[in-house]
Amino acid sequence: MNKSPQLYLLDGSSYIYRAYYGIRDVATADGMPTNAVFGFTRMLLGLLQEHQPDYLAVVFDRPREETFRRELYPEYKAHRDAMPEDLPPQIGYIRQVLQALQIPALEAPRFEADDVIATLARRYAAEGIEVTVVTGDKDLMQIVDERISLLDTMKDTRSGPQEVMKRFGVPPELVADVLGLAGDTSDNIPGVPGIGEKTASELVQRFGSLEDVLKWSSLVNGKKRRENLLAHADQARLSKTLATLREDVTLEVALADLQRQPPNLLTLIPLLKELEFEALEIAFTPPPAGVVEIYSDGSGRDSGPGGYGVVLRYGEHEKELSGFEPTATSQRMELIAAIRGLEALHKPQTVRLFSDSQYLVRGMSNWIHGWVRDGRLETPGALANQDLWLQLLALSREHEIQWEWVKGHAGHPFNERCDKMAKRAADEGMQTAAADRGTETAAEEAVAEPVRPVSVAALCLEPIPAGEDIDFEAEDDGQLKLC
Q: What value does the mean pLDDT take over residues 153-172?
């Protein structure tokens, strides 16, 4: 069955503020603040890598003074704080980043970003497109349906109709009715005095809509509540109008205009250099011609469940690999990650393999020569993880490999991406095993993809010239301790 095309609509203003407050004290050498630009770009990169949408647009708000809601109710959003003084200069750079990434930035006069998002989501969902709105704004829950969902990347949660019911107690089409009665302090929507969100939800569930609550207000429990509903009926209707997202915004944009395009590297890379975003520059710079880059990482505990994540890059192409091992140390998972990456190559290649494991990198670039020279690699039981070292040696002889260490958890885009994949694979593997087995020992009994055994004789283990021997302390499992 063919997968429906995926359209992602990103609430740009929400993303900017999340980036600004989520990352602080980032600036260029001459003191220009860049925290919002860096956070926005990094979050956007993560979204592109993880979800790979077919179509994408970032939607921005117009100044609140210019919207139709402010015309209806001058106090709309009047209590909001002014934008921090170091944020406006960064918004121009954010738009430059989007332009270099060839991602459309949309807005519409007199309307807010939410109205533009609602209009596009409804339009293209009706055409069979699966729409994801990237936001943390609860107001957008009113447009959710079977083809439109909300994605909160900060919480890593996705909301469909069931999640809306759980959040508001009513289906998406009645969310604005609840907000009309309860109001919204963040947007300064007044609602009805004395009625909070919980009560509003109960009333809408009971009577069916805001208008029916007002019509049958005489049946509502509580004298004061009945009086408020009667006295503030017009205010409730106005509040619902303010809370209701418009789906009729005139937008001269076709679906083809939102199709993902490769970034304009001639513009993007100099911009990232100007902003001094070295890690992001790495993320967008393709590998050298004729070189395959492999980034690998493993996640595991002593004799516990483990996962691995791998990213292969060649030219403008990328491939992700991840998997689960029911019982493995963190060091075994680091070796398995590298093995899986090399196994994905179908012919001899020039390879740069990056890992944050000094155990792996030093092992393959230095120690393995000594193990071959003194016979430890072919002596059964002489070396911990011997099966994996043999497999790596066999694979390495098929390619020209440069083993490179990167500092883990230090903002390197591919290392962090592989780490996230490895941890997710471990968690999902445990959940799947538990569901399949239904016992507490499911993880131990799960059948993982085995590492292929390697014949020692087949490797033709010839002595390798002596290199520098280094003494390291030993871990509890007999491995060498590196740090």
A: 94
Annotated active-site residue in 12, 180, 191, 298 = 298
**Which tens digits make up the pLDDT trace of 283-333?**
999 899 999 999 999 988 766 789 999 999 998 888 999 999 888 888 999
- 305 and 229 in one domain? no
| Domain CATH code at residue 161 | 3.40.50.1010
Count of domains for the chain: 2
The whole-model pTM stands at: 0.81
419 is catalytic: yes
**Element (DSSP H or E) covering residue 1:** none
Among this protein's residues, is 409 annotated catalytic?
Answer: yes
Active site residue 449: no
Q: Which residues contact 166 (CB under 8 A, 6 or more apart)?
A: none
d(CA 364, CA 366): 6
Over residues 353-409, the pLDDT tens digits come to 999 999 999 999 999 999 998 888 888 888 989 999 999 999 999 999 999 999 888
**Same domain (yes/no): 89, 217:** yes
Q: Alpha-carbon distance 401 to 393, whole Å?
A: 11
306 in catalytic set: no
Q: Which residue range forms the structural domain that includes residue 25?
A: 6-243
Here the CATH number for the domain that contains residue 428 is: 3.30.420.10
Let me know whether 294 and 235 are in one domain: no
Alpha-carbon distance of 139 to 472, in angstroms, equals: 58
- Dist. CA 483–CA 474, nearest whole Å: 11
Taking the CB of residue 212, how many other CB atoms lie within 10 A of it?
A: 14
Question: Do 394 and 300 lie in a common domain?
Answer: yes
Position 410 scores a pLDDT of: 79
Which residue in 115, 356, 412, 416 is the catalytic one?
356
Q: Higher confidence at residue 349 or residue 3?
A: 349
* Residue 61 falls in the annotated catalytic set: no
Specify whether 151 is located in the same domain as 220.
Answer: yes
Residue 70 confidence (pLDDT) above 50: yes
Catalytic residue among 139, 334, 363, 429: 334
